[in-house]
Amino acid sequence: MTTSPLVSASDLAAQLGAANLLIVDCRFDLADPARGEREYAQAHVPGATYADLDRDLSDLSKAGLGRHPLPDAATFSATLARWGWAPQTRVVAYDDAGGALAAARLWWMLRLVGARNVAVLDGGWGAWKRAGLPLEAKTTPRAATAVAVEFAKSEIVYTGELRALRERDEVLVLDARGAPRFRGEVEPIDPVAGHIPGARNRPVTENLAADGRFKPAAGLRAELLAAIGAHAPGTVVHSCGSGVSACQNLLAFEAAGLHGSRVYAPSWSGWTADPANPIARG
Predict the structure, then answer these.
(1) What total of structural domains would you count in the chain?
(2) Cα separation of 47 and 11, whole Å?
(3) Does a cis peptide bond (omega within 30 degrees of 0) precede residue 102?
(4) Is residue 136 in some structural domain?
(5) Residue 18 zone, left/alpha/beta (φ > 0; ψ -120 to 50; rest)
(6) Strands laid side by side in the 90-94 sheet
(7) Are 268 and 190 in contact (CB under 8 A)?
């Protein structure tokens, strides 16, 4: 495994069975939240455990923080303990949406608790299957561990900080949603259409090549630099609908060698929870 935030299907296949490797299947469907776990039960990468976006990577009981609020550190610690994670564990996450639902979300959360040997399977479930690599349906739980982690709060942007940064013109919000949603022409999920004033649009689909893998780093870097213009990567705050697919844009930045950007965790669903926050369309 390397320090890259992406790992190829062939490289992961070569690591199967390693005692210090934790593979996490993060497949999820917003329209059918149970589908990911059903499909995991039918077939998954050998040895993988399953992470449910709603149950394991979010706390849906929190109000006003978007549709997928981060869980408390103690809750996430319990999840990691159940998976048998330890600080030295190597983690590879995958999904079937280019990392956007929700492999990149887990990657980001692990980075927030200090894990660095964590990657997303480039091309996800589709790349693994196209390569004809092994599959299994059985689940073999790992031995539980004792885990107590804390989130690096400075790496998470919430609405109060975003308001302040916008007032001082010290931030560029980069919105990961599709262009029609960003422009406010359609809104299939959240009750209000539009975007945060001043934001720019970088749909997550633009980070991927036709085969579902991330574009080569050099080309991706050029595209992302063009998207942010004169803004430094460290002033970029990623947003989306609920703080999930924004993590894929952060992943793309890191894969392209553009470090220091952050995620606005509540994202559009959290921004519009306060009617005092301005919105833009077009």
Answers:
(1) 2
(2) 15
(3) yes
(4) no
(5) beta
(6) 6-7, 118-121, 90-94, 21-25, 49-50
(7) yes
Give CA–CA dist 171/234, Å, rounded: 9
Check whether residue 99 and residue 198 sit in a common domain: no
Mean residue pLDDT of the chain comes to 97
Nearest residue to 2 (alpha-carbon basis) of 10, 11, 89: 11
In a domain, 254, yes or no: yes
Asked if residues 94 and 120 have their Cβ atoms less than 8 Å apart, the reply is yes
Tell me, yes or no, whether 214 lies in a domain: yes
Residues identified as active-site: 240
What are the backbone angles phi and psi of residue 139, rounded to the nearest 5°? -120, 125
118-152 pLDDT, tens digit per residue, is: 999 999 999 999 999 999 999 988 999 999 999 99
Residues 223 and 125 in one domain: no
Could you give the CA distance from residue 219 to residue 52 in angstroms, rounded to a whole number? 33
What is the C-alpha to C-alpha distance for residues 248 and 10, in angstroms, rounded to an integer?
A: 21
- pTM, entire model: 0.97
Whether 65 and 158 share a structural domain = no
Q: Which domain holds residue 264?
A: 153-271
Which among 17, 25, 142 has a CA at the least distance from the CA of 93? 25
The answer to whether residue 139 sits within a structural domain is: no
Q: Residue 251: which H helix or E strand, with range?
A: helix 246-255
pLDDT tens for residues 54-89? 999 999 999 999 999 999 999 999 999 999 999 999
Burial of 9 (0-12, 13-18, 19+ CB in 10 A): buried
Output the pLDDT for position 36: 98
Residue of 209, 194, 214 lying closest to 280 (CA atoms): 194
